[in-house]
Amino acid sequence: MTDTPASKPGQTEVWITGIGLATSLGEGLDANWAALQEKRINVDEKGFAPYIVHPLMPVAFDSQIPKKGDQRQMEAWQRIGTYAAGLALDSAGIKGNKDILSKIDMVVAAGGGERDLNVDSGVLTAEAKGANAPGFLNERLMSDLRPTLFLAQLSNLLAGNIAIVHGLGGTSRTFMGEEVAGADAARIALARIASGESDIALVGGSHNGERKDLLVLYEFGDFNLKDKFAPVWARKDHAGFALGSAGAFLVLESKAHAEARGAKPFAKLSSVVADLAKRKRPGDMAATLEKLWAKLPKREGKGAIITGATGAEPATSEERGFLKSHADFPVRSTGTVFGHAMETQFPLGIALAALSISRGALFPPNDSTGTEIEMQGAPTQIVVVGAGHWRGEGMALVEAV
Amino acid sequence: MTAARDKFGRPVVVVTGMGILTSLGAGKTDNWAKLVAGESGIRTITRFPIDGLKTTMAGTVDFVSVDPFSSTALSERMAEIATQEALEQAGIGAKADFPGPLFLAVAPVEVEWPQRRELGRAVGQLDINYDDLLRISGGGKYSAYHHRFMFGSVAASLAETFGTKGSPISLSTACASGATSIQLGVEAIRRGETDAALCVATDGTVNPEALVRFSLLSALSTQNDPPQAASRPFSKNRDGFVMAEGAGALVLESYEAATARGAKILGVIAGCGELTDSFHRTRSSPDGKPIIGCMNKTLADAGMTPDQIDHINAHGTSTPENDKMEFNTTSAVFGDLAQKIPVTSNKSMVGHTISAAGGVEAIFSLLTLEHQRIPPTINYDNPDPAILFNVVGNKARDARVTAVMSNSFGFGGQNASLILTREPA
């Protein structure tokens, strides 16, 4: 009912013609690809100890966000996303192309921006020391909050900043809801292009994992990886995710639109499906993943799976069970390498699937448990899996054109 | 049957159920009676201390209680109540088995001050920083707060309660969110993915920090006394919007599916349009082109011309900039008709329900079509001479209304419009 197979008769093929990546491994496709080949992982075990995060590899924001004033109006998650979106537009060859940018449809998966930790700590400290006047909080917030911080926190202002900085004048929708928001963003953008409602779309998200306020939120549920890094598949007795900083954007385009402007595809996005398992009993989530798997178009080519498995339990064990029943598909975990970038993980998975197909090889395994195995030859079909740490399941099929 | 498809060959999308909750009360009957009577739901805030605030009134929904209180919990509860009303009217599906997806317009979710203060107290020392908070956050004591403050939590809960199908979408397009949720539902039905969709918009975020944030951007009215007179769209002395809470829920169906099951059709979503403005984070492009484009796209989507619109349910926030911009852009699209078509702003009475506004006002537009009566824009005693709208000032007006345009414009360059009609064209 909420599936988006582009393979219905009369529906147009949808190509991935642009990819923008800014991650803990670096910026751009070559840097990320090279790091994957070298099995490099960038974790910070000290800065947020005992919590582990994958910090953003520093980038020159000026190159995509030339106005310092624009940069100042954003918090890190928006800068990362606006930067990665610019890379995607460059990659698709449409940066500055007013005709196309004036009609491009944007679907962004977003969380929210960081808090001003000093303001929060100041209020709590003053209250601990006895400040208890009825209007104390109001007065402190009125005097201490930066007026523009609100705009740097608002979910839809990632899309807003992308529009302002890169001159996008089409449409703009922001989906929230952690991991599956990334799948739903791709699902809706694909459905709109496949049905002819849209010709071209910018889809993706960004996440700043280097935030103590986010660590608090996930610590409520004991979801943070602590003390020692391990690949996602080796965390069973030491469960959790290491937040990652990443921006991942894709340009999706109808085949006809791409061909008319001579754009070359990395791959095609054939289908995106998503669901909400109840996750009340063991096996609920795995059953939903099987259901989604069955909904994807037939896989006859040389297949692989790229998953955003988080390392959180019980979701990751359920997913491991699902993967075992498809053991003929080599698996790669983006969580191990990039950390967990929440809303951004699914677009990141699609990006890496398209990149692997276009470069004629799946990147090598990075795992000590044997869950990830070597793959010989070029993949022609890659299934992207994204099961949320708490709720929401998504899946996509990326295929060679 | 010709009515099952629109002139572009797409399935006609109709409304078969509506539920609403605002500061005026719960339910369509109560809201409509108060709306046409010109009653205001704006009052002095009692939920939290107002000392030190520049704006001390809002359209709070105080008759719905949630425990423990959070804006997110209130948003969820209001959405449930509105959805329940919409489903009862539609009579669709079975209990906890709605035959289609959920599109939810909801305010961005975050940990709130009551919870943050609880953590602070639990730290138990005089100097508190985030490392201290982190140290005491784990271990399961606060696991309910993880669930509560996930962005997807409200949608996940509604999806489970009402048994919607597939992955529910939580969305934010700022003050246009409600309209976007309807647009997503319309598109899903037009694409043939589903026969029905549940489109819900909710916002319960009148809390100290949210109020301060808008206040620091000088967006809110400070005419606190009397609070009922603060929201004065199109008036010369308007000085900002009034924050408010509420929820609206619509059951959308294809005309074909609705008639096949004998459902009563309450109205038609004839057209939707959106266009982003890349001029500024909070201000509209001075030439108004994105808003003009948004209205034109919506007319084109409905296959209609300006002379077929006989009422405009304005965004009408009561901010100095919005109302003037809305008149100028409407004039660019409608020409002289912009001064003839009756225009009203529900926000004069219920305030600005932010993420919920597009849904709430779509429902008021549909009730306007049903009752052939346009609710007033109250506090319209001192018309802005630069805004030459035919404002339905202070008193409700009977009128022949066949097609309403409802506008929503938001921070981040979000513009969305809907056209609602009584019958399929």
What order do the helices and strands come in, and which of them pair?
The complex is a heterodimer of chains A (401) and B (425).
Chain A: E1 4-5, E2 14-23, E3 26-27, H1 28-37, E4 44-48, E5 51-54, H2 68-72, H3 76-92, H4 98-101, E6 105-109, H5 117-128, H6 136-144, H7 149-153, H8 157-166, E7 171-176, H9 178-194, E8 200-207, H10 212-219, E9 243-244, E10 246-254, H11 255-260, E11 267-275, H12 284-295, E12 303-307, H13 315-324, E13 331-333, H14 334-338, H15 345-359, E14 381-387, E15 393-399
Parallel strand pairs in A: 5-9, 6-7, 6-8, 12-13, 12-14
Antiparallel strand pairs in A: 1-11, 2-3, 2-10, 2-11, 4-5, 8-10, 11-15, 14-15
Helix pairs in contact in A: 3-8, 12-13
Chain B: E1 13-22, E2 25-26, H1 28-36, E3 43-44, E4 57-58, H2 71-90, E5 102-106, H3 113-123, H4 130-137, H5 143-148, H6 153-162, E6 169-172, H7 177-190, E7 196-203, H8 208-216, E8 246-254, H9 255-260, E9 267-274, H10 289-302, E10 311-313, H11 320-334, E11 342-344, H12 347-350, H13 357-371, E12 373-374, E13 390-391, E14 397-398, E15 403-410, E16 414-421
Parallel strand pairs in B: 5-6, 5-7, 10-11, 10-15, 11-13
Antiparallel strand pairs in B: 1-2, 1-8, 1-9, 3-4, 7-8, 9-16, 12-14, 15-16
